[in-house]
From TrEMBL:
One of its GO terms (biological process) is mRNA processing. Keywords: ATP-binding, Helicase, Hydrolase, mRNA processing, mRNA splicing, Nucleotide-binding, Spliceosome. Its EC number is 3.6.4.13. Belongs to the DEAD box helicase family. DEAH subfamily. PRP43 sub-subfamily. One of its GO terms (cellular component) is spliceosomal complex. This is RNA helicase.
Amino acid sequence: MGVKRKRKVIMFDVVGDRAIPKLNKTNCDVSNNVNSLINRWNGRAYTQRFYDILEKRKTLPVWHQKEEFLKALKDNQTLILVGETGSGKTTQIPQFVLETLELESRDKCNKYMIACTQPRRVAAMSVARRVAEEMDVNIGEQVGYSIRFEDCTSSQTVLKYLTDGMLLREAMTDPLLGRYNVIILDEAHERTLSTDVLLGLLKEVQKNRPDLKLVVMSATLEAEKFQGYFCGAPLMKVPGRLHPVEIFYTQKYEDDYVEAAIRTVIQIHTCQPPGDILVFLTGEEEIEDACRKIKKEIGNFGDSVGPALVVPLYSTLPPAMQQKIFDPAPSRLMPNGPAGRKIIVSTNIAETSLTIDGIVYVIDPGLAKRKVYNPRTRVESLIVSPISKASANQRSGRAGRTQPGKCFRLYTEKSFHNGLQSETCPEIQRSNIANTVLTLKKLGIDDLVHFDFMDPPAPETLMRALELLNYLGALDDEGNLTRLGEIISELPLEPQMGKMLVVSPELNCSNEVLSICAMLSVPNCFVRPRKAQKAADEAKARFAHIDGDHLTLLNVYHDYKQNNDDQSWCSENFVNYRVLKSADNVRQQLACIMARFNLKLCSTDLNSRNYYINIKKAMLSGYFMQVAHLERTGNYLTVKDNQVVHLHPSSRLNHKPEWVIYNEHVFTSKDFLRTVTDVRGEWLIDMAPHYFDLVNFPHCEAKRVLEKLYKKKERKADINTKKLSFRVTSGTC
Ligand code: CDP
Ligand code: MG
């Protein structure tokens, strides 16, 4: 791998639909053994659906490059494959590989397995389901998926779709990823943090495992960069079949992009020829709100317009709802009436991860929620920000998959050319990398500065990560992983949360802290339907704990369990049953990991005054770097960084405690602290004196208060020593 090879570009002719190869013994899909009527995976006869999907698969561009792809893979250890979204990379390529491995194993009877990574959970689940359907097997048997807190695989699984983060976790226990023969890193152009780390890691692993094949798949962006990184590995291009897409820009800046998007949907639905619409918005609430408004406005037109199926798509949507994006558009109400239309309102999941057929119109406000990280203030937030030109082009491409399409950009042509960056900055350069550093340390990679990152993180970001892990006690002063660090690295939680869980048995509250960790690892459990907002707020108030949101979450979990996981109790109390069920599942999984490390589950007596104190102290032992102090001005300032912050309106904390710890610092209209709990100043200096060391403290009100607390503590210690010496003296008398 160290020898620089000449770059190879394999170009293939575009093969039209007429040139679909006939199935024969050498090129048939052996894994499914379509020449036989029996499915070799489960011994059952193929269903009609299998044959229907097979016909569609045969028309996908990658289908025509199968032989060339397999030959290139045979001849090379690493292969880069680029192709337009929808050309069949994610669904077909792993099946081609599977077919070869299956054939080889027939002679040798050896075991084999393929991993295909996805940056998004939704994509991993959805694609695995689709491929299981294509192979006519049950999901979780031969084809499965693995995402954080959900493993849908079995001992039979030979093709596993998994998030890039999960593959990284697997590498921690199996550094050479020995169970896989072929690893496919999909959607590499997204340049997520985990994919970037995997790229560097797999490059190393391949040196020790010449048998391990790697396929890096990407949309048509940055392909040459991957080729350069892999020392000239061959680049295979799958010619797309994009139809022309006409681009429209607005003439002036639209300040309310959601409203502008809804207006454009209505204009298309009332005036444009048939074809489905894809709208890109930025998040769950915005999407649900837009869907409601679109349905209402279309409803106002009555039968004069065609029926519309309006479907939301975002990452926390339940799987059954996610499948709805693949439902066909509704049919006309009357034989000569206007045609029906499917309208999908999605986050940028639909940009490249999921391909939805039939889209003819794309509406692009040019925005997406992106992670940004400021190492100076240590704040990582999701901010609605302009997308890159490359993203805008991907989005418009979605309109031309099946026929010529139109893309309506809700910004001016000038701002496209002058205001957008050409590529999206890789996630590693805009994230807090503490967790990544911990993972790399666990993988035995000590020299992070010289790790072969495709684009290295900023030195300050790396320094901040090392500093956090050192303060937590996960790394020692030499930067080596401590025993505590090892345990934290095995927990699928952010390091601060991992620390609070590990410390909780010592504070006799691990049962409760475990429940809080589980509740913090699932989406928001409170529901607030538009028509019942008051009742929902009242229900939430009944769970509220005076000391803050973490304990409110604990109340919800306890009540849910006391009511025997009852679905109707959940709806009566405006909490989401599915979310609580998944919190319960997360709790069980975390409990298993704790058992592995002999971390016992225990509780302080509920009637003891220490019950809540112990829980809060455990939380503080992990989150002591996320503390804010209430100033005399009435504002909160984050400790050490002195940023003005506000308690988030969703917080149930109805008084303003002097000190709070927070789970998240988010920036929306203002700087907000979300999920906040009241703590005592004395605990800060008791539990984290190394962090609250006043020598390195900026001048501020919090420092003065802490100084007083230190003095008080010293006085107390003095009195105690005197008392002791008095006793000793009296004892000797
Ligand atoms: O990965 P790439 O974007 O190249 O394409 P793909 O995801 O493999 O999609 C190939 C085809 O499968 C498209 O026509 C999709 O619409 C279809 N597909 C589907 O019907 N259901 C899914 N869950 C995923 C893909
Ligand atoms: Mg794909």
